[in-house]
Amino acid sequence: MIDLKELRQNPAAAQERLRVKGFELDIDRFGELESQRKVLQEETEGLQNERNAKSKAIGNSKAAGEDITALLAAVGDLGIRLDKAKERFADLQETYQAFLNDIPNLPHASVPEGSDEKDNVELSRWGKLPEHNFEPKDHVDLGAGGALDFEVAAKISGSRFVVMRGDVARLHRALTQFMVDVHSREHGYEEVYVPYIVNEDSLYGTGQLPKFAEDQFRIETDAGFYLIPTAEVPVTNIYRDTIIDFDRLPIKHVCHTPCFRSEAGSYGKDTRGMIRQHQFEKVELVQLVEPDRSWDALEELATHAEAILQKLELPYRSVNLCGGDLGFSAAKTIDLEVWLPGQNRYREISSCSNFLDFQARRMMVRYRNPESKKPELVHTLNGSGLAVGRTLVAVLENYQDGEGRVHVPDVLRAYMGNLQTLDLNPA
């Protein structure tokens, strides 16, 4: 949630900044809700004060032995009026909160204008694109001998799923372990294991609910459970309703989980292969930091994700997402896009985002400022370190040799029993 104090001080400025995200803030409606809130709050507080004063007068009169019949009648009527005022105020607060819940985070000044991924701004490139003396295959064709079986997955579940077999399944597991090891051993992240099912409060805290309910897989029970769309949700919510000791900051977690997404609105997009699936694996990086170092933390987090790509020797580029491609909760996002020879293009493999205090305000995640001794909101960040399935795709396509083999990257061979090449035709 954006800072309501800032919104009240200058709604027009917030409106202008949100236009970069393609969001039109209705400041007239905001003004109406603010006016109604003030009127109802003043009415409720006035009636409460009046009742308190008359209750005190009743006590004094009673102590003095005076007749309090008229005073009691006045207080009784006052109580009914106060209850009705409280009810109107509560209804207004619910409407007001729903209005605020739909407002995205304000984009940082460095976020470029634009409507979609075509308007993202390239920041840098790393690695040399592979030169093939053959027509490179995409991962679907490479795995067609049985290593990647989309037909069986469709029989079991439906579209946007895959069954992996043999060496490719082993490679997928090796990539996961490799990523977690690098981040925990070299980058200082504490590994955590979290539930794959969360409640509505958790999804609200990180910004997936209520606005993006259709993107979630809801478990049909009275408990209001959801399958997680990313480890960001349970990991960040570890600290919901918590005041963190300053000495514990920064908090850095790495977490491997499956992720479940309905992909609502992506009909007809990336239907081939593993790029966009309902179930996939991801190694997630989450940081909670003091506010004045969150921009440095974003750069650090991105370099940690980049380190995985560099160790795997996969060419990639980094881009600054434009406003129209920026997520609801993010103030700024740096995407890493890996080169896929089978598609002859870069594809997103990691999004590293700074949410500032947007999520922390929704979750009430605070730290105790050592100078003021008062609780203040932390800043939260996260990024993929990396999406495992897409990394598998990149390895298969970049390490193919044109003779039906895929070579195992050097850094993964210890995780693969020193296997040199993959068998793409498992029995």
Description:
- The structure is a single chain.
- This protein has two domains: 26-101, Helix Hairpins; 117-422, 2-Layer Sandwich (BirA Bifunctional Protein, domain 2).
- 38% of the residues lie in helices and 21% in strands.
- It has twelve helices and 18 strands.
- β12 (332-340) and β13 (345-354) form a beta hairpin.
- The longest helix has 37 residues, at 27-63.
- The radius of gyration is 27 Å and the shape is elongated.
Gist of the model:
This protein is an alpha+beta fold and 427 residues long. The chain has helices at 4-9, 11-18, 27-63, 69-101, 139-142, 150-156, 166-185, 200-206, 232-236, 294-311, 358-363, 388-398, and strands spanning 121-126, 148-149, 163-164, 190-191, 197-198, 217-219, 225-227, 242-244, 251-260, 279-289, 316-320, 332-340, 345-354, 365-368, 375-377, 379-387, 406-407, 421-422.
Give keywords:
427 residues; BirA Bifunctional Protein, domain 2; alpha+beta; Helix Hairpins; elongated; eight-stranded mixed sheet
- For the record, the CATH class of the largest domain is Alpha Beta
Mean pLDDT score: 94
Q: Rounded to an integer, what's the Rg over CA atoms?
A: 27 Å
Major beta sheet, specifics?
8 strands, mixed
Q: What CATH architecture of the largest domain do you see?
A: 2-Layer Sandwich
* Structural class assignment: alpha+beta
Based on DSSP secondary structure assignment, what is the total number of beta strands? 18
Model regions low in confidence, pLDDT < 50 over at least 5 residues: none
Global geometry: elongated
CATH fold annotation of the largest domain: BirA Bifunctional Protein, domain 2
Q: Could you give the distance between the termini?
A: 53 Å
H/I helix tally: 12
- Percent strand equals 15-25%
Question: What's the SSE pattern?
Answer: HHHHEHEHEHEEHEEHEEEHEEEHEEEHEE
Task: Let me know the CATH homologous superfamily of the largest domain.
Answer: Bira Bifunctional Protein, Domain 2
Number of separate domains: 2
Across the major sheet, the strand order is 1-11-12-13-16-10-9-4
Share in helix: 25-40%
